[in-house]
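Before going further, learn to read the protein records used in this course. Taken together, the tokens spell out the fold as the letters spell out the chain. A record is reproduced here so that you can trace the correspondence yourselves:

***
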Amino acid sequence: MSPDAKLTALSTIVVREVRRFTRIWPQTLLPPAVTMTLYFVIFGNLIGSRIGQMDGHDYMAFIVPGLIMMSVITSSYANVVSSFFSMKFQRSIEELLVSPVPNYIILAGYVAGGMARGLGVGLIVTVLSLGFTNLSLHHPAATVLTVALTSMLFSLGGFINAMLATKFDDISIVPTFVLTPLTYLGGVFYSIQLLPDFWRAVSMANPILYMVNAFRYGILGISDVNVGVSLSMIVLFIIILVVLCLRMLARGRGIRH
């Protein structure tokens, strides 16, 4: 394919993905906004007023970066896994497979669509959070880089889940039994410095901890882990998942029968 044809193919997939989740916005954009607002009210206002400060910041300000990151992670993942698996289920994915579109263009299109939804939801939640606390970017570059890389990483994760899933129940297993526990234990609501040494060491094995803390550093200037290490780990995970996704596409894993 020529470069123009590849660009056309990529833009077509991205536009279709964006139109897909914006067309059903009451199911894709509204629920995360409502859920995070409840978190702000319950954990931030009601419980936060009793906790006081965390790492020198109001508790509401402390949890906001983690809640924004939580919404980005779940939305990016959900968009790709539901969209790609739906095409598998309807067998319309075969149209892409028999076309001359390279696998990396297919992957890039779906990942871009997942990032669009994840970052869009993150922006909505950020705007809502301004009604509960004042936020100022301590390090804008770190903030943008962290949220973009995290959204890309979990879009890739959603793509792998969709490739391996054989029925609709399979696409809910990872978010329910993996993403949700890791997110809640990833330092969203607390600093791991409060934990005993053993549990602090266990928490360091949670990849979401690094994403939440890097994003919190970008906004508040505080982090329980080294920011450079956090960003390096995210990039490493992205490289691994990209290679895995392309290999699975090349082999037709979960697609060709």
